[in-house]
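Please check these two lines:
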Amino acid sequence: MRIAICDDDINFTSKLEDIISRECAKNGKKTEIDVFFDGETLVKSIESGHRYSMIFLDIEMKKMNGIAAARRIRQLDRYTLIIYISSYDDYLKELFEVEPFRFISKPIQLEQLQRYCAEAIKKIEGMNNLFVYNYNKEEYSVPIKEIVYFESNKRLIDIHMNDGTVRSFYGKLNNVEKEIQKMNKHFIRIHQSFLVNYSYIKSMTYSEVALEYNDEEYVLRISEDRRSTVRQKVCEIAGGSNF
């Protein structure tokens, strides 16, 4: 598992590196940790082809702050888990744009960091799960992380993939929702006909969600009876309480 730490406090990064290395080992994961002291250097590393399972990213850095770095990172890698080292409340406006996994405030609490490391590992493992379905007596599977949303279309379920393709099978969206929740808690039922992957939500209003994938933006309606529940679920996922 390759991990990046990006923070301009050299003493802090050294301590964080030691803690993360120990926690990953406790969870049975071998790690390779790269340390960066500004967002620009981290971005250049990713632009050159390096990929990280998770990135611990400080927001308030002088050369390139964490928000600017994360915007570029998301253009290059949608799946890396970004754990912000900052105050959660101060950056709610950027919540959807850069899709952070967790927020850690300084000085870090060891117990919180341990929990977040374990949750991140579990999330990464879940992202590699496959959704299996049958169509015309043939069995197919697709990576869950590549599914943008499921759409109920009469008796058919359409799977909208992040490359713009659509796959279909016969079934009920209620059953799909139950099955997917066992493997990945980040799918949200926004409508009787739509089950959406939180990872692809770019923005949200009270009545709509905007999804971004395959270099396009798509808007889906949130049904009136689900609006309160959807907003609660989004806040739970963003805050880390829903896993």
In short: Helices lie at 10-26, 39-47, 66-76, 95-98, 110-127, 173-183, 227-239. The CA atoms of residues 47 and 167 lie 31 Å apart.
